[in-house]
Amino acid sequence: MARFHDLEVTDIHKTIRDAVVVTLKPTNGAADEFEFTQGQYLTFRRDFDGEELRRSYSICAGKDEGLLQVGIKKVDGGAFSTWANEELKVGDTVQAMPPMGSFFTPLQADDQKQYLGFAGGSGITPVLSILKTTLAVEPKSRFTLVYANKGVNTIMFREELEDLKNRFMGRLNVIHILEADAQEIDLFTGLVTEEKCAQLFEHWIDIENVDTAFICGPEPMMLGIAAALRTAGLNDSQIKFELFASAQPGRAKRKSTGQAGTTQGNTTKAAITLDGATQTVEMPKDLTLLDAALENAMDAPYACKAGVCSTCRCKVLEGEVEMVANHALEDYEVEKGYVLSCQAYPLTDSVVVDFDQ
Amino acid sequence: MAEDMSIESYLAAGGVLTNPTNVPPRYRAELMKLMATFVDSELAGAAGFADIINQGPGIKERIAAAKIVLEKTDNADKVLRIMGEFGADTGRYATHHPWTARLDRDADIGQSRSEHDMRLAVFNYPMNGWTDAVVMNLLMGRAVAVQLAEFSMVSYQPLAEAFRGIAPVEARHAELAEEGIAKLLETSEASELQSSVDYWWPRVAASFGSAESQKADTLRAMGLRKSSNAELKTRWEAETKAILEKLGLKAA
Predict the structure, then answer these.
(1) pLDDT tens figures, B208-222
(2) Which of A14, A67, A337, B8 is the most exposed place for a label (fewest CB within 10 A)?
(3) What is the reported pLDDT for B114?
(4) Strand pairing partners for A340?
């Protein structure tokens, strides 16, 4: 299982008003673990008022740059991104897991391919890593980037993209689509929708010769682009997605765990929620929560029943339970009240658990 | 672009998810079950075949059987690694369980799974020697091909990609079985092979699950299923029947 490592901030600078580019250096000899493939992301953790938050941010550096760099855009109400934008400084230590993700395709030096990338706002970070690496590793390949933003002043990496166009003369084409700012060509104003893509494919993008398309942006934009690509004849294996849902909550709410008295009784009243329905069952204290749910004809998820796979995870909202084994959940999950139901026995006379959280 | 969309409506509209951080809890549970079913079936299938290798009538056959064991284990690893990104302890998962364990040959368990793993019911039945193993491998290999074609379209992109990579490898296993049967038919009695077909046909058919799955709509909305159990089974029956007839055998 992946573990967290310490990384030192060696550089931090703004790319636009509310987004920073952070350069990191693994400490404690963990450098090898942070070898990455273009398009991958890092998952960070940090304690905010005693509560651990985890956030994933894509690496924006190219593979050949010898740098580990992520871009972090400030999200309204986002605890982690606000902290990174306002307080993080050179010399600080942050914690992250080694790179993960499969938002890339293998590169071959003598390939001659046409790539098409779509990025919405901060969705540029992994796409930037991909296009820099691809153009450097495959000298005969070409890359077209369709980059959607609100306006000119919210375009992350705008200057860097201009520099890259010069560096990879004739092989990198960037089409900026701006929601609010008018441009010379009408087609380049507005949202990147399915219709907009279809229009781009008519004159601006040679869609028939595209080998692979990469999309990173908000959900509706990804759906529209994917639909247009399929209509244009691309199959699913040619379309690579990366979604960092806007649904990552700003800050998780702490649930107070009721300290309802532990007693000597041998049975527990368990309220178990699954698929939106709650059943209250009387169960012996020597039965696991999972078995109690299964015995009462609830279709609770499980696989290994050995505390290994984490399929049966549920959240304890009230009462206390004890796990006899836990090989899957991490400390921070346990702190939030998650348990492996196949290993969890009730301790209190009543418990409330939820499989839907 | 700024408009908000719930993950549920995004999935229902055909959207794909790409990493564990934004997977909703119920989706996570169904995805983990799908992956565990595949991993457990591959590990149990490989373990069953490992015992058969030395019963192969010649070196070529033993090489084919050993290759199948190796590749099924490798395929399990590919999916287990994705489970690992969700927190599963992958090292322990592969070794904590007796994957070679089988029930009696005439146990009648229908579609039910054993207490402690998620292997498809068919992998709980023991194989009865080399010929029987080759027949089982053909019938189940064809079923895996149909199921992988379906699951190569799941809405969790890393898993869909893993299945797309695995599909041709598994397809080759069914081809090896087909070649193996053709070879066996040169020397053995067709009736022996036919009785193995008769034994495995209903058991493999049962691995497609019940015709009235209550979950079908939920899974479809999550993008984890497209076809129904019955549709997949019908596809398998038609394809496999044609292969058997070509070999001079008949479906049960």
Answers:
(1) 988 776 778 889 999
(2) A14
(3) 66
(4) A313
> What structural domains does chain B harbor?
18-247 (1.20.1260.10)
Of B22, B28, B92, the CB nearest to A243: B22
Residue A186 Rama label (left phi>0; alpha psi -120 to 50; beta):
alpha
**Segments making up each domain of chain A, as ranges:** 5-96, 114-242, 267-354
Question: What share of chain A has pLDDT > 90, as a percent?
Answer: 69
Q: What Cα–Cα distance (Å) separates residue A64 from each residue in A131, A136, A216, A231, B88? A: 12, 8, 22, 35, 32
Its sign, for the CA torsion A213, A215, A220, A223, is: positive
Tell me which chain B residues have a C-beta less than 8 angstroms from the C-beta of A305.
Answer: 115-116
Crossing angle between the packed helical segments B25-50 and B59-85, to the nearest 10 degrees: 160
- Smallest Cβ–Cβ distance between B89 and the set A102, A121, A327 belongs to A327
CATH number of A114-242: 3.40.50.80
Which regions in chain A score pLDDT beneath 70?
1-2, 244-264
pLDDT tens string A150-169: 999 999 999 999 999 999 99
Contacts of A227 in chain B (CB under 8 A): 14
- Residues in B touching A304 (Cβ below 8 Å): 36, 93, 96-97, 116-118
CATH number assigned to the domain covering A267-354 = 3.10.20.30
| Contact: A223, B13; criterion CB under 8 Å | yes
* Nearest residue to B232 (alpha-carbon basis) of B251, B213, B245: B213
Q: Which residues of B touch A236 (CB under 8 A)?
A: 152-153, 160
A5-96 homologous superfamily:
Translation factors (2.40.30.10)
